[in-house]
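Box 3.1. Reading complex inputs
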Amino acid sequence: MTIHLKQSEDAAFKSCAHDYQVNCGNCRLNSICLPLALESDDIQQLDDIIQRSKPLQKNQHLYRESDHFQSVYAVRSGTLKAYKTTDDGREQVTGFYFPGEILGMDGISNNTHASSAKALETAAICEIPFTSLEKLSALMPNLQRHFFQLMSHEITEDQQLITLLSKNSADERVAALMLSISGRNARRKLSATQFRLPMSRVDIGNYLGLTVETVSRVFSRMQKMEVLRVDNKEIEILDTQGLKNMANLGG
Amino acid sequence: MTIHLKQSEDAAFKSCAHDYQVNCGNCRLNSICLPLALESDDIQQLDDIIQRSKPLQKNQHLYRESDHFQSVYAVRSGTLKAYKTTDDGREQVTGFYFPGEILGMDGISNNTHASSAKALETAAICEIPFTSLEKLSALMPNLQRHFFQLMSHEITEDQQLITLLSKNSADERVAALMLSISGRNARRKLSATQFRLPMSRVDIGNYLGLTVETVSRVFSRMQKMEVLRVDNKEIEILDTQGLKNMANLGG
DNA sequence: TCTTCAGGTTGATTCACATCAAGGTGAATT
DNA sequence: AATTCACCTTGATGTGAATCAACCTGAAGA
């Protein structure tokens, strides 16, 4: 089972590497990543400013906190985590980024990245130089609108997380994360009920403000309740409604 | 003491009401609110799209969650809180907004406000219709850049709060909020060490993921440690360095 | 003046999660 | 096949903040 999914990931990655010069027009993520009502000419212009470099290996950084900000990034394959390092050296994971999602926008305000981003597994990335994006946005109202919306979306997501951290129990937090990942998979036409977690328990705990031990116990509990089947990083949602009830959010 | 500060607030407000047709060019907050390297002609254009309506009374809403999104808002005087209502009816305060700060940007992503905003005291507001802002942004690179930065700043602020909620103790959270308010006062050339909290203990607790009782106890503790003098909503910071140590952030 | 009520404080008790401690598992290395 | 190491799980115990409860304070209204 584990092996099966690994293979499919590798296959997906190979097709990307092979398609090294994919462009936005033919990228299968474009409906998620840049759902612009664009003329093909517009897409071409956008495509021209985007840089596709060689894939990031697991644990490689895309950028680090306090790096000079130059670009935002779209994930084409793989997963990344964004995190801040607190002054006493601890980490705070601020987000996970899946294919089709954009990261790096927190660097705009200071011309300095406010967080670090590293690959949780091999990842292909599209780099979008920000000054070019700004210029193009001024010419293409749809694009400008889209980026305002993307940033606004990041704000609402962060506010969701704030609420989660401040109001919800360990069970609810983990349930909410599983539902979030499930939903993001569905958006990419992957299974909403079966998937492999790209991140460790430590990262999950860190993101949700919990310790590893607590995360582990929650998974055990969910398994006992037959809401989830957990096999290491392999997750199967057995009872979506049960999970939603458990998350206690918008059910 | 309390009376003294109330008077100065009222005075500030009256000068606003009197200056009903203040414009961005002569607004004393413009260096904070819209620190654009603008030609006066640009300022005039921006000013033309901004609407100044009659002040909000205490507890009045500026907008509500799920209202149709049309504008973002700048605070000219007074304070507002933004909050979300969870499905089980509880509130999560997501931010406090002081004069010179912009709110409402979380509505852009869905054309629907993702939170509600209400006045914590009488407040004067500048309304900035978003479609006009978009059009103007396309023409004025500085303005476009500035709004990207504002939104990015909101993201980094939210991420700060996420870290605070997930990693810091009650003492640290309250200390961090006091320092934040102090800093925002300083930005407006007000005292960094003496101010009146516009929000209740309940709101503070709600924002910081704590109960009222805990907030109250933290204030008592800080007072005993002679870091703060607390007289109801009147705050005096007695030992800024002590407070910073207590916050345990960037000390 | 008395009452009411919202907002705040303080103390006693409880509880969810952290911490500490010990093992388990499986992939990579030798 | 044995060793190592990162990652995960489970159990026992401790603790910071929530909860429950009582009371205080001051403004608003009768």
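In summary: Confidence is low (pLDDT under 50) at residues 1-18 of chain A.
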